[in-house]
Amino acid sequence: MDRPAPLPLDTWWFRLAVLTATALAARAVTFGSPVVHVDETFYLTVAQAMTHGALPYVDLWDRKPIGLFLLYLPAAVWGLPAALYVYQAMAMAAAVATAVLITRLADRAGWRAGALPAAMLYILWLDLADGQGGQSPIFYNLPMAGAALLALQGSRGRAMAAMLLVGLALQIKYSVLFEGVGLGLWLLASDLRSGRRVGETIVYALMLGTIALLPTALAMAAYAMLGHLDAFIFANFVSILHRSKDSPALMIDRAGEAAAILSLLLFAIAGWRAKAEPLVRLFLHLWLLVALVAFVGFGGWYNHYTLPVMLPGAVCAAAFFQRRARSWWWIVVPLALLFVTGQVVLRSERERRGTAAQFQRLTATVGRGPGGLFVYSGPVLLYPATGRPALTRYLFPSHLQFDREAGSIGVDQRAEIERIFAQAPAAVVMAPAIGEEEPAMRTLVEQRLSRDGYVAQPSVRLGHDDVVVFRRPTSSPSRPAAR
Question: Pick from 333, 327, 305, 445: which is nearest to 378 by CA?
């Protein structure tokens, strides 16, 4: 007997259309913004420098994996402002693709009726935690969702493919290690459960671990061939061990915000005992637990650190929506409220961080020219936006500002600031101080500005901040110092 044709609501194309429309509506307010978040505009800045031959960890310093900067390269080649739309479109596509995989995972659990609402929950939830743009979890959640789906397939070949995806995710951000280890342990347990001998499983474990580390090993090999293996190892692995912890007050504040964002896990908890394929349900619940442990254990507790938890959280929430499938208001009302809340958050953040028009005014105040630029505090995207050369490889402001970075970036912060001013930057940008900044660093910059006769231009409003550009009145064009 022929199976009945699936209802339109169950087809992949209908799900894709709904999820794409949801993402467009959820993210429209930020499209084209050059100040969505300092992290992603920094990634784009590094990628743009790479198009001109700069090498991360050598010419530009950060501790993020090289894969993250490579992800931004396809956008960077377009130049500003087109690159902003391209990377944000890429991020939206990654979020939608992840949501599609959420529906597939929910289907495997037996929560088909709750699959689409759960995927919509994921997309809307992102807006609460700076996930409206191209934060790293927006990209690495996609391979992790694919790895989870493959892990449930039951074959060794698909398990190895799953660990390769984990390896790719590691090259977007190393914090995915926690979830990768959890997934690997699940695969090994599945292997033993299938009747394999312990010795065979040990060999299999080594194979899976090797596959997961392969992308990182290839990146290391590439830097070794270029003669910069030491720089790669220090930036990627050693530097984080020397970074200090944030103050307890900041940690408590961030923990409170993160707890509010993760309160939506109540949807996952509410469906805890819903009918499902037992092993799939166990896998999904363990995945959520590991993601939570990783979030707590990794520290920092910035709001966007909750984004990886949202992936298994949304999948598990499909059980709740499955149980409420016949009561449409249990689905429509929560999602509508979440959408409205997300839009309020995004508009609030736009008001706080600034608009594209304000950024353009700041860019015009800095001006173009051959002289070097030093953004002590403010948008790092000013470097490619003005075309002025950077006089330091430490473009991300916190590396030279924050006390927690002292001793962890490979140079003395004070000495690096002195070196920058020795090159006579044509323009210096300073936004108001924030709570994490080391006051001594700002004082040093202010002293050098006064000593060298820099002239403050009329401040430019950028969100809630008045950003000041200081110009050197008469100087020869500054050039990046030899490294």
Answer: 445
